[in-house]
Write a structure and sequence with these properties.
The structure is a homodimer of 518-residue chains.
Chain A: H1 7-15, H2 48-65, E1 67-69, H3 72-80, E2 84-86, E3 89-91, H4 94-100, E4 107-110, E5 119-122, E6 127-128, E7 136-139, E8 143-146, H5 149-161, H6 180-194, E9 199-200, H7 206-220, H8 224-229, E10 233-237, E11 244-245, H9 247-258, E12 262-265, E13 270-271, H10 279-300, E14 306-309, E15 313-315, E16 322-323, H11 327-342, E17 347-350, H12 360-375, E18 380-382, E19 387-388, E20 393-395, H13 396-413, H14 420-423, H15 425-431, H16 441-444, H17 462-467, H18 473-487, H19 495-511
Parallel strand pairs in A: 1-11, 6-18, 7-20, 9-10, 10-12, 12-14, 13-15, 14-17, 17-18
Antiparallel strand pairs in A: 1-3, 2-3, 4-5, 7-8, 15-16, 19-20
Helix pairs in contact in A: 2-10, 4-10, 5-6, 5-18, 6-7, 6-19, 7-19, 9-10, 10-11, 11-12, 12-13, 13-18
Chain lengths: 518, 518
C-alpha cells in the first residue's frame, strides 16, 4: 500500500528526470510500443492427417476415459449438455465437443485501462506477457530469495517500462510477505497504479477471481455491463493433469466466461510425468484437457473469449526434473499451435528455461522456446521475460535479457522493405566495386536506425571488452534493470478511479479477502 | 607431423580405454552419426514477387555496374561468354547468367575417405561443418591465444569425435606456429589422419588449392579421373565485396570446377560497410556476387558442384564492428535460402556470434543464427561449432556448447511419431485421471531414450546445483571438450595411403609449399 504514499518519487518521475521521448537526455533506447504481427504462415510439424489423428485420439480420451471434475456445478453443466457423469468422472461425447468449437472468437480486443495499451489476441497478433507465478525472485546483488511485494512491484514497473511487454504481468514473483488472504488485493492495486497495461487475475479462489475482475472494472472506470462486452482481464487455468479439473479451476472457467472475461486453459502436461512419455501422447492429453476446458467455458457462456494454452514439455527421465526449451518442447509448442488453429482459437505458449544461472543455457533454452512459440504461431506468449528454473524464480537480470530477445524478435517480424530505394542500386552505383558504404548518401540517411541496437549484446572487440572488465551478458543485464527502474515513470490515473480502487481494496481487506485455512 | 609418431596413443585408443558403442564403460552419450533432413518446407520471408525484384536488381548490378575481376584468365572466360570487359571491370549480361543457372546439381554426394561418412549436399539434407579460419583459439584453462597446430589438431579430433559434425573442418583455428608456406600441408595431413570425414581445402593460392585436392585424392585412394566424377573436397570463396573478385578467389572458382570439386561462393556482404545499409540491398549485392561466381564456375566446367553461400549480416553503425545473430542476420539467412532455391542450388549458411565470452550472448546469437539457418533451408551450415568474436576465435568451450545445440536441432528435425502406440491411449487408460506416468508400461519401454539428454544443460534443482559449485554452462563445457578428447579414437587408415600421403607432403614441404612474400 506504499505507492500512493510516495508522491515525491512520482512527482520526480513525472516532472523531471530522464525522459523517454527523445526530448531530454537519452535514456534506454528501447523500441516503441507496438504489437508485433506474424507476416508469414505458422509452421506445420505434422501434416493435416496426423493432426486429425491426434484430434480423434483426444475425442476418444474424453468420451471413453473422461475427466475427473471436482466441482459439482461444473459436472452439472457438462451433464446438462449430455455428458455422462458417474461420481466425479465426466465423459464428454464428441458431439458436445463439436458444438463448443467455433463459438469462441478467433480474435478479439483485450482492453487496458489506457486504451493505447489495449491489445489484440488471436490471428497473426503476438503479445508478450512477463513471468508469472514464481515464489522466488533473484538478482545478482541480493541473490535468490522469496519474493516480496516490493519485488513484485519492481517487476510490474519493468513490465510497464519496456514497450515490448504487453501486459502488467501475472505476478512476476509472489509477494510472500503479504498474507495469502489479501495478497491479490495488494498485487492488484500495484498493477493498476504502477502500470496501465492489460490485467491478469488469479482464479485460485472465488473471492480472488471476483476481486480481480472488480479491480479491472474500477481501473477502466466502466460499468460491469460494458465490461462484459469488453474483455478486460485474463486468467490462466492449469488443469490438474492427467485429466483432472479441480474446484477453483472449474469455477474460474465458468465465472470468467459468464462475465465475458478471458480464460486461457493450459494443461500442465509434462511428458513422462503427468502425461505419456511421448510428445504425441502428451499433446493428445493436452488437447483433450484444453477441449474439456473449452466445452465448460462455452457452455457457461457461448462466445466467451477463450485461449488455447499449450505447455507440454518433458521431464528428465533420470531425475524427474522438468525440462524446458528442449527439442521436445519446441515440437510441442509448434504442434500445439496447429491444434489451436484447428479449432480457430488464439494460442498461448511460453518463453521457458530450466537454468539456474543467467548463462548460455538460460539463453539457448529461451531462444529455442521462442523459436517454437513464434514459428508455431503463438498469440499470447506468457513468461516472455524473467522466467527461470522452470518457473521457480523470477530473475531481474533474465527479465531484461529477455527484453533484448523479444525486441530482436519484433525486429525479425518486421517485413522486409524491398522498395526500389531499399534495394540500394543507386548506392551501389555511387560506391562501385571495391569501395565501402560508410559514407554514401544511402547510408547517411539511414544509419541511425538501420539495424536493431541491442541493449545487452557486447560487440566491442576483445581488447576493448577486456579493458572494460570482461562483462558477461548477466552483468550487463544487472545494470540494465536498475537503469530501467530509475527511468521508469508511474502512469497517471484519474483521481476518482484511484479513490474508488483504494476504497474497494480497503473494504475487501477489512472483509478478510480470500478465505484460507491458515 | 607428430601424429604417426604416436603409436602408443593410437594403440591405446584402438585396443582399450573407453569405447563408444556401449560395450565398455559409458562415455559421452552423444547421438549416433546421421545426417539430418528437413521434413518441412523452408520458410519464406519475402513473397515470390519480392524475390524476383531482388533477382532482377542483381542482374541490373551485374550488367550495368559489373564486377572488378583481377585475374586475366577469369576475365577471358567471362569475355568468351559475351561479357563486356573494360580493364578489370566485367559486365555480365543477363543472358550469360541465365545460361549458367540450372547446370550445377541441386543435390550431390560429397565423398569422404570413410564412405560411411560421405554426405549429401542439397535438397532437404543438412550438414554441419565446424568453425573455420580464426587466427586465435581459446579455452578457460589457457585463455585466448594465437592458434597452433596442436590446437588445430584438437579441433579436428573434436570434429571427428562428435557425430553431429559432418566435416573434418576448415581450419578451426589457424596454425600460426607453422610457416604459411607449408601450413596447409601440416593441417591437411592432420585432417586426413585424425579424421575420416569430408575435406576442405583453402583456395588462397594455387599450390595450396592443388595440394589440398591431391591430398584428398590420396586419402581416398582413387585416381584423379574417379575424383573428377566424385566431389571429394570443398572450398569456400569469399568475394571481396562490393563487387570484386580477387586473383586467388577467381582461380579457386575456375580450378575447383575443372577438377569436379565443390565451390561455395560466399559474398562477404556486411550491410552498412561492404554492402548497402539495408538488408534488401545487401542481399541484392550478395546475390549478384554469388551469381558472378556461379557464372565463372559453370563456364569453367558446366555441371560442377556449386554451393550458394550467404553470409549477409550488419555492422554496428556506431563502431563499425560486425554483428552476428541479429534480426537482420536472421532475415538475410532465410531470404538467402529463398534465393539459392530460386537457382536450384544447395545453400550454405552459418552459426555465428559476436560474443567475447561463452555467455548468454554467445548462446542467443548462435540460436538466432541457427533459427535462420534451419528455417531458411541451409544445406551446409559452416562455423556450426566453436565460432566466436565474429570469427576471430575458435573456442573449445563454445565448440562443445554448439554440439549440444546441433544435437538438439537434430532431435527437433526428427519427424513426430504419431503411430497409435505413440499416441499412448493405452497408457492413459492404465494411468487414468489424477495418476502419473512414471511407472506405466508405456513409459517403462521408452524412458531411457524418450527425450534428448543434453550434454551441457543443468537440470538439477537450485540447491543441488549450488551444492555442486553453481557451475555455469561455460564451466560444464570446459569439462566436456576435455572428456571428448580423452575418449577420442584416431580412425584407421590404410598403410599404403598413409605412406603415399607422407611422401607427398614431405616432397611438397621440400619444394617450399605455397610461395609467399615473407
Amino acid at each position: 500500500m506504499s505507492i500512493a504514499a510516495e508522491p515525491a518519487a512520482r512527482r520526480r518521475s513525472r516532472e523531471g528526470g530522464r525522459r523517454r521521448d527523445g526530448e531530454g537526455p537519452r535514456g534506454i533506447a528501447q523500441l516503441p510500443w507496438q504489437q508485433p504481427r506474424r507476416a508469414f504462415p505458422p509452421m506445420k510439424l505434422v501434416c493435416d492427417d496426423q493432426l486429425e489423428t491426434m484430434h480423434e485420439a483426444s475425442l476418444v480420451l474424453l468420451e471413453e476415459i473422461g475427466m475427473d471434475v471436482v466441482l459439482p456445478e461444473a459436472r452439472d453443466i457438462y451433464a446438462r449438455a449430455g455428458a455422462v457423469v458417474e461420481g466425479e468422472r465426466v465423459r464428454i461425447g464428441r458431439d458436445i465437443v463439436a458444438a463448443a468449437i467455433g463459438l469462441a472468437p478467433a480474435e478479439f480486443t483485450f482492453h487496458a485501462r489506457n486504451p493505447a495499451h489495449s491489445i489484440r489476441i488471436g490471428g497473426d497478433w503476438i503479445a508478450f506477457s512477463p513471468v508469472g507465478g514464481p515464489p522466488n525472485c533473484s538478482d545478482l546483488d541480493h541473490g535468490r530469495r522469496p519474493g516480496t511485494l516490493a519485488d513484485n512491484q519492481n517487476f510490474i514497473r519493468l513490465s510497464q517500462f519496456f514497450n515490448c511487454i504487453h501486459t502488467s504481468g501475472g505476478g512476476s514473483t509472489d509477494a510472500l510477505d503479504i498474507h495469502a488472504r489479501v495478497r491479490h488485493l495488494h498485487i492488484g492495486r500495484a498493477k493498476i497504479r504502477l502500470s496501465d497495461k492489460v490485467l491478469y487475475t488469479s482464479s485460485t479462489g472465488r473471492e480472488r477471481l471476483f476481486d480481480g475482475i472488480e479491480m479491472a472494472r474500477i481501473a477502466r472506470g466502466i460499468t460491469m455491463e460494458q465490461m462484459m462486452a469488453e474483455p478486460s482481464v485474463f486468467t490462466v487455468v492449469n488443469t490438474n493433469s492427467p485429466l483432472k479439473l479441480d474446484g477453483p479451476m472449474a469455477m474460474g472457467i465458468i465465472e470468467m466466461a459468464r462475465l465475458g472475461q478471458i480464460t486461457c486453459v493450459t494443461p500442465f502436461t509434462l511428458a513422462g510425468a503427468m502425461a505419456p512419455v511421448t510428445v504425441a501422447g502428451a499433446l493428445v492429453e493436452q488437447n483433450a484437457e484444453a477441449l474439456a476446458g473449452l466445452v465448460l467455458n462455452q457452455l457457461s457462456k457461448p462466445g466467451a473469449p477463450f485461449i488455447y494454452g499449450g505447455f507440454t514439455s518433458n521431464v528428465d527421465m533420470k531425475s524427474g526434473a522438468p525440462a524446458f526449451g528442449t527439442p521436445e518442447y519446441m515440437k510441442a509448442a509448434i504442434i500445439g499451435g496447429q491444434m489451436a488453429r484447428r479449432y480457430n482459437l488464439p494460442y498461448r505458449t511460453s518463453n521457458t528455461c530450466a537454468a539456474n544461472a543467467v548463462d548460455a543455457q538460460a539463453a539457448y533454452e529461451s531462444v529455442f522456446s521462442l523459436w517454437g512459440a513464434i514459428m508455431g504461431g503463438g498469440n499470447l506468449i506468457i513468461h516472455a521475460a524473467g522466467w527461470m528454473e522452470g518457473g521457480l524464480v523470477g530473475s531481474f537480470e533474465k527479465f531484461v535479457l529477455d527484453i533484448d530477445l523479444l525486441q530482436m524478435i519484433e525486429k525479425f517480424l518486421e517485413p522486409l522493405d524491398t522498395s526500389a530505394d531499399a534495394l540500394g542500386l543507386d548506392a551501389m552505383r555511387e560506391v562501385g566495386p571495391g569501395g565501402h558504404f560508410f559514407g554514401c548518401a544511402h547510408t547517411m540517411v539511414r544509419y541511425s536506425d538501420a539495424f536493431y541496437a541491442p541493449l545487452i549484446s557486447d560487440w566491442r572487440n576483445f581488447q576493448q571488452w577486456q579493458a572494460a572488465g570482461s562483462p558477461e551478458a548477466w552483468h550487463k543485464a544487472n545494470g540494465l534493470w536498475k537503469a530501467a527502474l530509475a527511468e521508469y515513470q508511474e502512469p497517471t490515473i484519474d483521481a476518482a478511479i484511484a479513490e474508488e480502487l483504494d476504497g474497494f481494496i480497503a473494504r475487501r481487506i477489512a472483509e478478510g479477502g480470500q478465505p484460507t485455512d491458515f
